[in-house]
Amino acid sequence: MSLLMADGHPEALEAALCAVYAPRDPIGEYWQGRITLRALYTLIRHMPPDNAFAREYGQGWDETQWLTADMCAMLRDLQRTLISCTPTETEPDLDKLVRPMPQPPAERATQQESHEPIINHAERDSLMAIATGHTD
């Protein structure tokens, strides 16, 4: 961010400086002669990227947000490439759908569900023998 960005928005820049460097007033310190123009420029130049002035008149994005936006753009490009390479079908094959599809309530009411567990007695007996230490 440069001093030239403040052209036309000096109040916004001053508010951002006061918010970032509170309780200091860098512009007041400059006019009082307590800091140099170079020091004021350095304070402006190195304000955090998410300050109020940058959000209002600049980009306001940090590196993480830029990287996230770039990754989203790459994923969209990859998705478009995959869609353009796969042949289109007129109707989707319902056997290929991975997501579970809920049944309408009318169909659920007509189906009789068995709530009895399926017991494999031989397997149960062998597991009980291993668990209790009784091997035959």
Characterise this structure:
By secondary structure, the protein is an all-alpha fold. It has helices at residues 10-20, 26-31, 37-45, 52-57, 63-85, 105-110, 121-132. The model has no long low-confidence stretch (mean pLDDT 75).
Q: What Rg, in angstroms, do the CA atoms define?
A: 34 Å
Mean pLDDT: 75
Strand-pairing-aware structural class? mainly alpha
Number of helices: 7
Strand content: under 5%
Helices, strands, pairings?
Layout: H1 10-20, H2 26-31, H3 37-45, H4 52-57, H5 63-85, H6 105-110, H7 121-132
In short:
With 136 residues, the chain is mostly helical.
What characteristics describe this protein?
54% helix, 136 residues, mainly alpha, 7 helices
